[in-house]
């Protein structure tokens, strides 16, 4: 047992004392991570917060939301309208969360105490943590697929690497498992970045990703011979669904893609230098996210025109 205690002492995070409590057990209620952010530590400008939504827009999940709607059978135009409605709805609580964070400098663990109480807030944080683990797994899986595509483009023989190493019941190949692990390990160092340091990562992304987005958008429209063939596609819902049900399902999917920010956008805006402009910057959410979903819908519809099936 002493060995386990020694290991725990080495890996456990020890919170720094806060403004209102002493060290020890009391630090769970107030410490450096939970206290309101000091003004000198608020380094996010309004354009950092607005740029965050550009970076978030170029997330594979946003592309998948619209492309999945097209796969359901919705016309690309109808799919975009459904995504826009969902984004407008989720913007309302996101702005509220952002305002609270920018005004009071508090994060989600502290704000959840208002609803759940001091000890009940642990339940909310555990649920939030589990969702984070699941979401990181989903993103890592998608990233692993991207790594595999890159490796296969460089070394085509990788397509057949240890092809029969795992049984079919595993639902994953050895190559997929390797690529997932590579991506997972590659992203681990970024977990050590602070919120203030993360803003530079978003700046890099909003400079680079729009070029790739415009390139993909241009290719999709050119290969599909313009807007006409894409938006003239009829709405054909399969699987016994009605158009209304598919439309509402897409709205729900658009909301769920950004629902996490509706409850914890304060984790970012608490570091905002100008609290008035920072929460207004949340209005970039429906604009940036919907534009990216437009790209996803166009790419999905283009693949149907080009290849005869959705890719």
Automatic annotation (TrEMBL):
A single MF term (Gene Ontology): nucleobase transmembrane transporter activity
Keyword Transmembrane among UniProt keywords: yes
Pfam families according to UniProt: Transp_cyt_pur (PF02133)
Topological category with respect to the lipid bilayer: Multi-pass membrane protein
CC annotations in GO: plasma membrane
Alphabetical UniProt keywords: Membrane, Transmembrane, Transmembrane helix
Main location: membrane
Highest taxon above the source species: Eukaryota
InterPro entries: Pur-cyt_permease, Uracil/uridine/allantoin_perm
Places the protein is found: Membrane
Residue spans crossing the bilayer: 121-138, 170-195, 202-222, 242-263, 283-307
Keyword Transmembrane helix belongs to the record: yes
Stated family: Belongs to the purine-cytosine permease (2.A.39) family.
Descriptive protein name: Allantoin permease
């Amino acid at each position: 047992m002493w060995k386990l205690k020694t290991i725990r002492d080495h890996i456990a995070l020890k919170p720094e004392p806060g403004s209102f409590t002493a060290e020890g057990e009391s630090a769970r209620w107030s410490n450096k991570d939970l206290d309101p952010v000091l003004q000198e530590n608020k380094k996010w400008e309004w354009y950092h917060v607005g740029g965050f939504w550009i970076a978030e827009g170029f997330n594979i999940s946003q592309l998948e939301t619209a492309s999945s709607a097209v796969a359901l059978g919705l016309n690309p135009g109808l799919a975009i309208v459904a995504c826009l409605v969902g984004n407008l709805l989720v913007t309302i609580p996101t702005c509220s969360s952002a305002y609270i964070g920018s005004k009071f400098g508090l994060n989600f663990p502290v704000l959840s105490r208002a609803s759940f109480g001091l000890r009940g807030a642990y339940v909310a944080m555990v649920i939030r943590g589990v969702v984070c683990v699941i979401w990181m797994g989903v993103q890592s899986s998608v990233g692993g697929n991207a790594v595999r595509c890159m490796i296969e483009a460089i070394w085509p023989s990788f397509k057949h690497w240890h092809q029969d190493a795992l049984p079919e019941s595993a639902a994953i190949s050895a190559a997929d498992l390797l690529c997932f692990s590579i991506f997972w390990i590659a992203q681990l160092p970024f977990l050590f970045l602070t919120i203030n340091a993360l803003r530079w990562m978003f700046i890099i992304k909003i400079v680079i990703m729009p070029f790739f987005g415009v390139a993909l958008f241009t290719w999709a429209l050119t290969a599909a011979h313009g807007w006409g063939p894409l938006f003239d596609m009829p709405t054909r819902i399969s699987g016994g669904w009605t158009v209304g049900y598919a439309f509402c399902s897409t709205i729900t999917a658009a909301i769920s893609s950004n629902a996490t920010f509706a409850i914890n956008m304060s984790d970012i805006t608490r570091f905002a230098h100008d609290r008035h402009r920072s929460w207004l910057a949340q209005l970039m959410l429906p604009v940036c996210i919907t534009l990216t979903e437009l790209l996803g819908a166009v790419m999905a519809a283009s693949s149907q025109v080009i290849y005869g099936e959705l890719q």
